[in-house]
User: Which sequence fits this backbone?
């Protein structure tokens, strides 16, 4: 399962990717220069498995689950948190009091049924676990410890096969535990690809993507995993919920849409038929630089509303562009690309570039490529490497006492300018007041005819021991600002336990009632991922943020 | 509301469009030639309002609803049925025993609340009514008469305004009762258009489209109204269910998707923010003729999977092509078109035509047009006229004793060949056995990368008095065949009361449970459009088809 390489029990990805002290010291010095700090942050020593604070397990596997259950310390540590900033910080500090009591790794769907039956009998909360890359507390079952006899983490990664490929209809039946590389590797032989590349691609799983409505590679049209799901199969406490394979239907409310985004509260997604693409043979790309942010936004809006549907349409503000080595002259940069297995993108990118020029953009040379994607295609390889490297960097920064996090939203084009100003103002003010300053930057990850999905990164220096409170101040300021100005709580990071406060405000009240009714129907024992999306019947009316100390969730809060 | 012209109380559209006896006789003679009948069918006299069979109303409006309530005979007749074949037949025969007791025409949302409160108090079933063009029994509240003190039809057409336009984000807030022409006329001034043209466009309403997941103009991408709904507002028995305006979101299961397709069982849709398009200025079109059906299907599949996303991609089998005067040489014809407000479709249609040729298609001259759509643009005007004329023709055929109906589905490309053969075989056999013969033909109305939406028309001669049973035999054969071979019960005609048997089979069982739970939550009084999508708690476990005689639904069945 570990593919031969050990995962870090507290940080992002593979353990051997965590830099040594010398390398971290150098990164600290670079960062001090970037943020204008008076002195470089000092690398702190990472936790060791022996020294972490973890209670003994309160659950003992019985014979029905013994074949795939573990109460091993390392396994439990690996399944305690996701990989959001809070998680990294708590993990780095050695706080694993929220660890699950038991980790279950089902080999097949009957094992999933056994796991559910065991948890029902034993009054154990059951938390589906894919890659464990949630940044919103989606897999942190320990938060509910008090109300259950224990907490089980259900790791689906043994169920990682492509079971069937329908080349004619370009679809495949794939088990929920397949990671991005695992499923792409199996599809490649058939000339097909899912082309869904969230930043967590290396580790996250199909089931996780569906449960959280993850956002992927395509800047337009197929932005979320939602559109790629042809049918889905979920095991629930009241039977198997399996939708049929239809390219489209008008028969009642879409049954798959109730599963997509359900974040494990109804049941366990075990497999799905996914819509695939032929591997692209034509690629065209260009970039446009803008002096004024407003012009860049207008150009992006015009392209989003043009009907050209670019594969990539990523707008980076000047700070993002500089940090990603895309521009160093203070320009905002729009990256535009088209790809196709069928036809060249000459007409499309020419028109896209013209729109950018009409809005004051300085357009780079347009580059066309043809043929199978090459592993060594320098530019895209560099971009992908940097993209996949970013979460590793965040773990490193945590070890330097640096607060670095991202958040994202989407709103209408009309709402965007005011929302953006409000977010930047709120985050800068929060960083100034709680950390003495910091940096916030923005990019568009996806665009729609009616609005952009805006993604923000902030970086600031924390005070040792105060980081969680400082971070919570910034996070709250950001979420309040975006929510107040018409942004959604999350465009693709999901709700989990972290975003409940704002999700509860955004969601239509009767829809909350509906979700609770559905949960009571599909999860009558009330054991599935408790606390996510809706409160348990006996729980508080609203989630609190940040969680109060002593509830097992966030002792640093 | 009637826009100065009177609607037929039993047939399609405007009353003055029903042909006189001479014209109908001529149509009967043409049809006899087409179907190879030994003698032309005789026109029967249409019903008169005075002579129809309609019970007196059992509901008396109180002061709270008096300002917008009516028990007028004509009003009640107009709201008894939709306009499916069964409806036309029963209406033509003068059977209005299923009439609602009262018709409510709310002027605004407070009136809707008054209507719901009245119905709750009086134990009256409440059936939302838009254009009354359902072909699946979606507005036939009389079917539930026995379980309630009466039945009210809630006609939303007074609420027909565009309330707000966001030109920047290309969206508008529109009241649910606006018909196609009403909303397009209000949007035109802003240079925008919804471009959703179901065949019922003239009469059906935005709220009806959303409630039934109607299919529209675009053959790809924006096929259903679903994709065009930015946010929706629904009044329910437990509060207002209003989703927020987001271009995209990943926050929990999509709340709007539970409303879209809910067919009035949860509440009353009162308005929605809809995604709009700029009015197209560039149009390119071509057609391709194929000798072999299989080649035509493969060409269409290749185009659907090409990423070209044509606006129109309609494949007509030889019989459809002949009947629509598109080809008279036995060819199957693919109609291909691109439209855009931003850029010409030269590259796209050239590639689309090349794909058709690669699959053995003989491609017509490609035609490009530029500039505002002209009212007198002959070809499209002719097509639109014929498209909008078809439902009128069906009413005329009913008056000639001819059984003519359509049904539709969608399945994967892999499943299509076998499903198509099974459908054609089943329908031909049913027509042969119950009517002595008849004609069935097929077209694709929409196409997806993973499969087509196939639309079938059948025409045969009925035996006077037996038509409903004959039709039911054919309909059952068709639905059984498509359902058995991987087709959805409906791609865009909805479920209503007609398709319940097959919908119940297709829907995941736990999703049925979930729908019932949601209905109990949002419609605690259980008065909203009873019998549609789910059975009432006290009702039968499964709907029967055709409905047994004497239950007020279908005395002819």
Assistant:
């Amino acid at each position: 399962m570990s593919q031969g390489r050990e995962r870090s029990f507290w940080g992002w990805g593979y353990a051997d990717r965590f830099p040594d002290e010398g390398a971290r010291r150098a990164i600290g010095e670079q960062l001090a220069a970037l943020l204008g700090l008076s002195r470089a942050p000092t690398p702190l020593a990472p936790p060791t498995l022996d020294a972490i604070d973890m209670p003994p397990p309160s659950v003992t596997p019985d014979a029905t689950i013994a074949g795939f259950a573990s109460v091993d310390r390392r396994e439990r540590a690996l399944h305690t948190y996701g990989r959001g900033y809070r998680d990294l910080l708590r993990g780095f500090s050695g706080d694993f009091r929220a660890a699950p009591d038991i980790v279950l790794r089902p080999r097949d769907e009957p094992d999933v049924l056994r796991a559910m039956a065991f948890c029902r009998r034993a009054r154990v909360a059951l938390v589906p676990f894919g890659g464990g890359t949630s940044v919103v507390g989606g897999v942190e079952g320990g938060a509910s410890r008090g109300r259950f006899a224990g907490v089980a983490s259900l790791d689906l990664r043994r169920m990682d096969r492509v079971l069937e490929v329908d080349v004619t209809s370009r679809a495949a039946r794939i088990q929920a535990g397949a990671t991005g590389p695992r499923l792409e590797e199996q599809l490649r032989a058939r000339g097909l690809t899912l082309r869904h590349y969230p930043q967590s691609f290396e580790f996250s799983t199909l089931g996780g993507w569906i449960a959280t409505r993850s956002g992927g590679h395509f800047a337009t049209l197929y932005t979320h995993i939602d559109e790629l799901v042809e049918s889905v199969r979920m095991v629930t406490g009241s039977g198997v919920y399996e939708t049929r394979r239809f390219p489209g239907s008008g028969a009642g409310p879409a049954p798959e849409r109730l599963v997509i985004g359900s974040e494990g509260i109804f049941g366990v997604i075990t497999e799905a038929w996914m819509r695939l693409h032929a591997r692209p043979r034509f690629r065209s790309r260009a970039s446009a630089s803008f002096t004024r942010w407003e012009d860049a936004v207008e150009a992006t809006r015009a392209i989003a509303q043009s009907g050209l549907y670019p594969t990539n349409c990523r707008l980076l503000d000047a700070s993002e562009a500089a940090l990603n080595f895309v521009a160093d002259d203070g320009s905002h940069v729009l990256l535009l690309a088209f790809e196709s297995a069928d036809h060249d993108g000459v007409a499309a990118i020419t028109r896209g570039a013209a729109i950018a020029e009409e809005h004051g953009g300085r357009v780079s040379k347009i580059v066309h490529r043809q043929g199978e994607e090459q592993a060594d295609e320098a530019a895209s390889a560099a971009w992908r490497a940097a993209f996949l490297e970013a979460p590793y960097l965040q773990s490193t920064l945590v070890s330097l006492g640096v607060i670095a996090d991202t958040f994202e939203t989407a709103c209408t084009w009309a709402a965007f300018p005011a929302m953006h100003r409000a977010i930047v103002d709120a985050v800068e003010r929060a960083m100034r007041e709680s950390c003495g300053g910091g940096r916030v930057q923005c990019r568009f990850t996806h665009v729609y005819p009616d609005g952009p999905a805006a993604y923000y990164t902030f970086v600031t220096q924390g005070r040792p021991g105060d980081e969680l409170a400082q971070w919570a101040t910034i996070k709250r300021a950001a979420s309040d600002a975006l929510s107040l100005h018409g942004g959604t709580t999350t465009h693709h990071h999901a709700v989990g336990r972290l975003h409940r406060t704002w999700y509860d405000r955004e969601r239509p009240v009767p829809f909350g009632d509906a979700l609770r009714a559905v949960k009571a129907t599909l999860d009558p024992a009330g054991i599935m991922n408790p606390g996510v999306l809706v409160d348990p019947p006996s729980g508080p009316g609203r989630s609190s943020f940040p969680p109060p100390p002593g509830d097992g969730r966030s002792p640093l809060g």
User: Anything to note?
Assistant: Residues 539-557 of chain B have pLDDT under 50 and may be disordered. The CA atoms of residues 195 and 217 of chain B lie 6 Å apart. Residues 15-155 of chain B form a domain with the Uridine Diphospho-n-acetylenolpyruvylglucosamine Reductase; domain 2 fold (CATH 3.30.43.10). DSSP finds 15 helices and 19 strands in chain B.
